[in-house]
Amino acid sequence: MGLVSTPGRLVKRVILGRAMRSDRLGETLLPKKLALPVFASDALSSVAYAPDEILLTLGLAGGTLALTQSWKIALVVVAVMAVVIMSYRQNVHAYPSGGGDYEVASVNLGPRAGLTVASALLVDYVLTVAVSVSSGVQNAASAFTFIRGHEALAAVVIIMALTAMNLRGVRESGTAFAIPTYLFMASVLGMAAFGVFRKVSGDLPLAESAPLTIRPEDGFGQLGTIAMAFLFLRAFSSGCAALTGVEAISNGVPAFKKPKSQNAANTLLLMGTISVTMLMSMIALAGWTQVKIADDEANQLLRDGVPVGDDYVQDTVMGQVSKAVFSNFHLGVVVVSIVTGLILVLAANTAFNGFPVLGSILARDGFLPRQLHTRGDRLAFSNGILILAGAAAALVVVFNADVTRLIQLYIVGVFVSFTLSQTGMVRHWNRYLRVEKDPAARARMMRSRVINGVGATMSGLVLLVVLATKFIHGAGYAIAAMAVLFFLMLGIRRHYDHVRDELSVREGDTKAQMLPSRVHAIVLVAKIHKPTLRALAYARATRPSVLEAITVSVDPDETKALQQEWDRRDIPVPLKALDSPYREITRPVTEYVKSIRTDNPRDIVVVYIPQYVVGHWWEQLLHNQSALRLRTRLLFTPGVMVSSVPWQLASSEGAEERMDGPVAGDVRRGE
What pLDDT does 510 receive? Predict the structure, then answer.
């Protein structure tokens, strides 16, 4: 017999698709052509906001500093990216299980280092979603002006859509996101090629903001050598947003098709090559077209010496460059705007794949609730996806989808994980070199150690720069969030350890197996109806040492009528009435049960609670919750067992096929 289709089940299947068997997990593995958009969209999309952050920071000093120095900052960022990518190629070969930076740090530096990395990555994944979606909405607003003023709402709606897509499974989301990702790469690289062609031909027009000048912000007018160096470091740390997402591939190795490590390493190299090409192209085009952007555009940007005012709409670097390059081809501007908005939104998909996997590994190790280790209907880690979406949506609302404010919280977590991971890899190679005798293998390991050592050193220096330049601008909040997560996960692990220790059976420990001297059974009675009679029959069938029925006397007249009806029916179980002058139900029952335990500590008390089962949630609202409260109180009483005896009403037929399952009503007062 097939399951009964219900509206809730139908909606779930339309959104998520049919449930998948566990043995179909292999069907969800990704080839390289799908792994690139799934795991690399975050790093690829950074070309849409990393140039903005470099120019905005340099623009604090005013003048043409951004145009003359931005390419130098970008080159340093590219150098760091090259080292990090080479380092992570070592990671995916050495640790292909999917633990990524967390596993590397835990194995080589200890559990606390691993937990530090995990805390940093979890925070960074949430920020990835918030920043990517917010940036995508801002870019889309260049072409669709109706979005302006409603960026936060649009971002939350997009996060919900991404959540639904990812709940359908990694492979389906990868297939859906592949086309926009490849369109973005084609459009940006195509725009870069066309821009270079127009530059060589002497036909490249200036950006719409080129005639403007930038006034320094207060305190940045006359910078000394040290202050200027600090400004360059701050611009560099902002540009390092281009490195976000690199670690996602090392966390996602198990999702690749075989050979997993090799495919992951090749995808990592391809991602780095494309990202570097696009980043330098955008910086070059921004310089050639003389793009001007400012943090406080209304007051910093001047037209003929006069601030442009609040009516001025500042497009992103990508938006201004596309309008200049495609000055006579408006469709090109629209295409770039649309695919840029899409890729920034889809960049969040990197986090939607990384966060749940990392959460599952942490749950397996006891640092997060075990529910995060469970796969959903579509073999995705559904609970992790939902938690990530909720946290990111909250950030978007709190910061009103403002990328400039959100970006200040960004980056710190990435470089914490980079630094500890690469340091761990150095210790990894040191450990293997102590026992390896083969000269060829030793040479290969020593080469890898050098790469990881350079990566650790460079990542550590960048981390110091990021902390020094961004701490007071928002990075401190990210660090505080990491600290909270760190101690929260330690507390969760401590709890699981305590529970395990308490539940473990030790040699000579016979307390759990000790037979009770007697079983004292109690049936709770509110009135004489079918659920009560079934509970009495069930209790009698267990043949307890003592069996009695009790009722709570809230209304003396009702209690007297109940006792008379009990005697008239000649029920072979004594009925005892408990006084309740304050009309309470829970307290008299629990005190009576405790008194039995006090008089006979080796007795077991079994309390049978009759209840009827209703099939709809709204029916549950019509019944009180005294039985639930009573069960909860009794569960905390040693030596007391609670047994619910259900009676299914007609409305509960078919309820087990419904998504939410049957709901039990309370019969303590017969309502």
Answer: 59
Which phi and psi (to 5°) does residue 232 adopt?
-65, -40
Do the beta carbons of residue 121 and residue 248 sit within 8 Å?
no
Could you give the 3-state DSSP secondary structure of residue 410? coil
Place of tokens 């670690």: 247
pTM strictly above 0.85: no
Coil, helix or strand at residue 579: strand
Burial letters 592-610, b for 16+ CB under 10 A, else e:
bbbebbeebeebbbbbbbb
Of the spans 129-133, 284-288, 355-359, 609-613, which averages the highest pLDDT?
284-288
pLDDT at 355 over 50: yes
Q: For residues 246 and 231, what is the distance between their CA atoms, to the nearest angstrom? A: 26
- Provide, rounded to the nearest whole percent, the portion of the chain with pLDDT above 70: 84
Helices 111-143 and 475-503 pack at an angle, to 10 degrees, of 130
Question: Mean pLDDT throughout 520-532?
Answer: 89
Helix (H) / strand (E) element for 517: namely: none
Place of tokens 């404010």: 405
Angle at the Cα of 88 from the Cα atoms of 87 and 91, rounded to 5 degrees? 105
Number of neighbouring beta carbons within 10 Å of residue 535: 24
Of residues 443, 451, 410, the one with CA closest to residue 88: 451
Query: CB of 283 within 8 A of CB of 71?
Result: yes
pLDDT at 333 over 50: yes
Q: Measure the CA–CA gap between 187 and 189, rounded to whole angstroms.
A: 6
> Phi/psi of residue 211, each to 5°?
-70, -15
573: CB partners within 8 A, 6+ apart: 523, 536, 539, 540, 547, 548, 549
